[in-house]
Design brief:
Strand order of the largest sheet of chain B: 1-4
Distance between the termini of chain A: 35 Å
Order of helices and strands of chain A: EEEHEEHEHHHHEHEHEEHH
Number of strands of chain A: 10
Number of helices of chain B: 11
Radius of gyration of chain A: 17 Å
Structural class of chain A: alpha/beta
Number of helices of chain A: 10
Strand content of chain A: 25-35%
Strand order of the largest sheet of chain A: 6-7-8-3-9-10
Shape of chain B: globular
Largest sheet of chain B: 2 strands, antiparallel
Helix content of chain B: over 70%
Order of helices and strands of chain B: HHHHEEEHHHHEHHH
Number of strands of chain B: 4
Structural class of chain B: mainly alpha
Shape of chain A: globular
Largest interface: A-B, 24 and 17 residues
Bound molecules: adenosine-5'-diphosphate, magnesium ion
Helix content of chain A: 25-40%
Radius of gyration of chain B: 19 Å
Largest sheet of chain A: 6 strands, mixed
Oligomer: heterodimer
Chain lengths: 240, 297
Amino acid sequence: MLRVEDLHVDRGRTKVLQGINLSVEPGEIATLIGANGAGKTTTLMTLSGLLPIAGGRAEFRAERGPLDIGATSPVGLVRAGIIHCPEGRQIFGRLSIEENLQLGAYLSNDRDRIAQAVADIYEWFPILGERRALKAGNLSGGEQMMLAIGRALVAEPKLLLLDEPSLGLAPQITEEIFDALGKLNREKGVTMLIVEQNAMLALELADRAFVIENGRIVLTGTGKELLDDPAVFEAYLGVG
Amino acid sequence: MSDYLIQQIVNGLSLGSLYALVAIGFSLIYGVIRLVNFAHGDLLMIGAFMTFGLVASDMVPWAAIPLLVLAGGFAAGGLIERVAFRSISGAPMITGFIVTLSASIAIQNLALIFLGSQPRNFNFPEVFRMRLPIGGADVALIDIVIPAVTLLCALGLTTFIRRTRVGIAIRAVAENPFAAQLMGISIGRLVFLVFGLGGALAALAGLFWSGKYGQINPLMGFLPGLKAFLATIIGGVGSLPGAIAGGYILGFSEIAFVGFLPPEYSGYRDAFVFGLLILILLVRPQGLFGEAEQERA
Ligand SMILES: Nc1ncnc2c1ncn2[C@@H]1O[C@H](COP(=O)(O)OP(=O)(O)O)[C@@H](O)[C@H]1O
Ligand SMILES: [Mg+2]
């Protein structure tokens, strides 16, 4: 579904990504873990067309054939089904919950489908349904995360990019969110690429995992393999 | 109520509406991209000259003229976006300031070259200069039409922004352009739309202005533009209801200063109006309807 080969991306004069190789197959959850500043957010922003590619290749296998991510506009990538749920949630605080969800389906013209998709979100996260007319800025951190995920799901993602869904949330809330993500993957078949600093949670959930260090992928394996890898344990799972 | 008072209220409503029509565009554009478009007032002049040209050509039916002026204003506003603004997108605020100021000067000078510096007298045909007796006062029809049309425009625009998908997208871009992009919203297109809408309303104000005062010239947009900008600040930049309220506050106070101050002061009305602005901002720096500046994501 997603194939990234030797991807290089600069931000300003800094060479941030210096050879990223990763792939995600349909229906699976992949995770990209690594320390703060390693280049995780940069990777996701590149995959949604927001940063230019300096070298290498990123290809999205859509229904209508392969799509060169570097040559496609952000709007084109959303239309193709790459939906990015950004770091820090970035919900529209001054808009109502309902309006936030509507915007998730901005490119769709099928009103019935949008209404159904929004209703589905309210079923998944009843708390959002109860407060649909409330300004989203009034929600708690966990609820805002649900809204951000809901907003992404309304777009009917083929590939959902999630940037640190655990950021700033209490451990218990984080677990609820990850449970929901696992359930979404199992029941709706949503393919995901999850970026996390909280490696333990991500690896438990993931079918496939990539470890990024200073803009390079240094380790690849199944979630289980990396969980059991002493090097990973020491670097990312140990205390401190 | 004395007929004098009625007359003054009508005058205030009418002038305030013209400021409000221009202020709406300032506010929309600022709200979405945090840019003060100094060329915005010149769209009023462009609307006035379009009206003049259409009337003089005698080729289109009367009813079509406002629609053509709206369309022309939309195009002119959009053109400013394409030519002046798009080329500098992503540049710091001060660049936008300079570029739109330059655009304003360029538009004024082009108008001076091609239209001449002489003010032109031009009157709407007789039917449109009718006067109505209201409560003993003798009121010009156009001074009733202007507030009525302004009200319709304001309601229409507010509904558009509140209820439609594109309106929601405009608010989303205003709040968080980065996240808006992730929704598949094309920011460039929305910015073009906002410049166009603002331009259409400013041009409509130009049509009304020429009908109300019967005289037009290439620099006529400057002062109304400046005052409409003040109206947006009084109302709270970025707030539509604020821009409209600001327009009326400015219109009414200007009329009041002229109407109720001793005649020897009326020449200084702009000084009084600007003084009032300073007073309001001392009390409420964010404007009447503005939110205190929040940190943006
Ligand atoms: N807007 C930016 N301009 C220049 N450099 C940036 C920018 N954002 C991030 N960087 C740099 O890119 C590197 C990777 O950042 P990022 O992708 O955000 O890392 P992560 O998400 O893994 O924490 C960091 O060294 C950071 O300093
Ligand atoms: Mg990050």
